[in-house]
Amino acid sequence: MLLFCFFGAVPASAGNMDPAALKAAFVLNFARFTTWPDDAFRDDTAPIDLHVYGGQKTWQAFRNIDGQQVGTRKIRVRLMKPTEMVDKCHIMFFDHDVDRDDLTTALAATKLQPVLTVGETSNFINLGGIINLFSKSGRLKFEIEPSRAKRGGLRISSRLLKLAIILDD
After folding, report:
1. Of 87, 123, 142, 165, which is most buried with the most CB atoms under 10 A?
2. Is the pTM of this model over 0.85?
3. Which residues contact 111 (CB under 8 A, 6 or more apart)?
4. Angstrom distance (rounded) from CA 166 to CA 142
């Protein structure tokens, strides 16, 4: 994860880490560099709810970050089906296997909400997502659409933006 903080792209095989575990580590760091509006939480210690939409391997990787500390909050990970939309979700991760129609519906429902949406499909940003993870030349990289995050009330740290490929609608 130190490589992520300093270089922005990490070899997809970093330290023999499973690709799904590496993506979970990236999402954890995205949470650490994102600020939600005060009214997104019931109090200062309420957890950051991370909903994972994907297969069993993705779910297992994300379970490893359940309970990790992000500021005064802990990450609470839940496996969800795309048709299950839950209020007060703070982060949604969509793996590459999520059905396009389900993905489009979920992203539309979060359009102006303080929900950090992270995916890993080539058209994720075009469909309304905020952060897209992708592999290029054997390295895991990410692109961000910051104006979409801002419309939802999220603030993404300039430290994270410096490491990203910035897209703007």
Report:
1. 142
2. yes
3. 128, 151, 152
4. 9
Q: For residue 33, which of 48, 21, 14, 18 has the smallest C-alpha distance? A: 48
The amino acid that residue 138 corresponds to is G
pLDDT surpassing 60 at residue 82: yes
Give the relative orientation of helices 56-63 and 19-32 as an angle to the nearest 10 degrees.
50
Q: Residue type at 129?
A: G
- Amino acid in position 163: L
Burial 86-109 (b: 16+ CB within 10 A, else e): eeebbbbbbbeebeeeebeebbee
Torsion of CA 108, 151, 1, 38, to 10 degrees: -110
Kind of pairing between the strands at 91-94 and 131-136: unpaired
Across 2-16, 80-94, 148-162, least confident range: 2-16
- 17 confidence band (pLDDT: 50, 70, 90): confident
Mean pLDDT on 63-87: 87
Q: Which among 40, 38, 30 is positioned nearest to 115, based on CA atoms?
A: 40
Four-residue CA torsion sign, 59, 125, 138, 7:
negative
